[in-house]
Model the fold of this input.
Amino acid sequence: MTGQPARLWGGLFAAALVLTGCATHMVRLQPVRTAFQLGDLAEAERLIVAEAESGPEDDLLLLDRAMVALAAGRPADSERMLRQARDGLDRVEEESQLEMAWSMLGDDQSRTYAGEDYERVLLRAMLAVSNLVQDGDDAEAYSLQVIDKQRSIVAAAAEPDGSNPKAAYQQVALAPYLRGILREETHRDYDDAARNFQLVTAWQPDFRQGPFHLARASGGTHSRPGHGVVHVFALVGQGPFKAEAEEQPTSRSLLIADRILSVQMQSSLPPTVAPIRVPRIVAAPGIAGTVRVGLGDWSAGQTETITSVSQMALRQQEALLPYQLARAVVRRAVKKGTIHGLKQGLGMRGGLHSAAIDLAGVAWEASEAADTRCWSLLPDRIQVLRLELPVGTHTLTLTVLDHGGRPLGDPVPQDVAVSDGRNTYLLVRASDAGFVGSPLTSGPAATGQKTIPTSR
Amino acid sequence: MGRRLDQPSRMGSRRFFLRGLVQLPLPLLAAGAAGCRSVQFARLMTPGEEGMIGSHQAGQETFTPLVNEAVAKLLARHAESAVQQVSVVDGAEPMPPPMRRVCFVGVENKSAEEIGDFKEQIYQAIDARILESQVFQSVNRRFVDAGLRDTRLRPDQLLVPQQMRTFADHMEQQGQPIDYLLYATITSGTTQQNRDYQRDYLLTLELVEVGTGNYDKQSAELSKGYHHSRLGRWRAAHSHSP
Done:
């Protein structure tokens, strides 16, 4: 073999290695998930920091680190990291055509990760929750951002023919819920609260508390005189992750791929396309079902799902899978075309050199890996519970229950301070092993607070 | 060593190689080079500069003129009556009556659109104009909020005479007596024409006298056309021109 072709296919192997990642994101992050779900927050943080030092996925790892900080009782740190990640992801949200073209030579992992749509919406929701358990000053702004983001993601996906692949997205009912409870607390903007609770009931019809919230905002008041409200937020279970799967391109994805090739390369799709690797969302929620909140001997209630993160991710994947497949098909066509062009350019018509280049081409295609990057420490479900309690400090008993109502781990007592006509927020993270970290609560100490008599 | 004529030269084979290598990806890269990721910029708008117009819903272009017109109308009417009501004490200079105190309860959105952060903006704009007018004295919003919270009365319940008295008494106890309640309401009406539509926005200010329940009402209206294409907008803009 002459030196030139040897260098050539050696170079192709090297390029294939450079253009594709070595191990997928989720494989590397699995120990972080495990440590976090077991409640070993120090180990989870250590692993994330180690991962950050060795890789370029700063914003994505920052999201996971923010979740660890929140569970560890550092909401200010969490908010700062989430804000930083939000700004970073916003900067790369618009797809770079250059990057898209470059990824055709490697795989989707070579594109800067801008976050899945559900992650970008939930990021703002988590910002609101992190802020609520501090002073809550920016919670209103964050809650507006959640709604705006959700709306803009769907609006931006509208096709000229009027179709919209993202119209099928499941909307995050947590967003209007947050806005509803914040507007209700003003004791003035009940119309806003009712409007938002209306959205909650429409977007999450199986949320049983929804109609009660709507009825209260439409004709009632925030709370009785001498009472305040405790809003419990529970982040329950393990969120979805992505795994690599082999897919046979569907006719719809082939159509989209053909359209991309026609527009960008004035070329048509080669007739045969072997199975391709794409990321598939895997829901593995675990056995944690809900959080029971007790007050003395009285069971005050159980948290109820307002947003199912896994379901959202699955619905989104369903809507976008044809586009993912199409991109992979185009990539395959580009690689095949490059090998074909190379052989033509070198005037090869069979022989050892030609076989060697074919082999390099196969290795190039085989080196593709699915892009499994994702926010790995999201919960499976976000659950809420509203409790109206008399002014003062109360000790709530919190217990994680499995889907059958059996306790997981020991009950945890938590003091909450309730102020007259005000909201207090309590945030917990529940997993199969019980609570992860400590509950977080907002609000000033209500002990000794004067109850304002009403003149009604 | 000789070279067959049908074999490309070393130089030629490099050229062919390069051509082959880039044959497919290059058009993609070239197409991509034209579309690098854009960066967001911002600038300060100069006073008097024409603001942006909301393409999908009402924005400052709608709310600012509505607030200006509705508040100006209300204040103009009451400025006249304030001038006429002059207290005269024997042998003394005519005294202007004390400024009447208005409790601006809030802005209610009954339109088809979510107005988001504009609600606070509208409240503050109306409140500031009333305060500047010297026709009314407006009660600080923090007192209004505290009053509503303490009495657990909804803004719409204040129009029930007994509850209005309860609220007024409470405010007086807090050192904030009130003469009027002021409500602002945004409503809308939509007329559809194929894929284009017209939305009429109405801002209504209702001033209710606490003692008597008498009320005054002033409105401002603005219509806005939403078009699916530039052509649609152009056609609508020129359909009524002479």
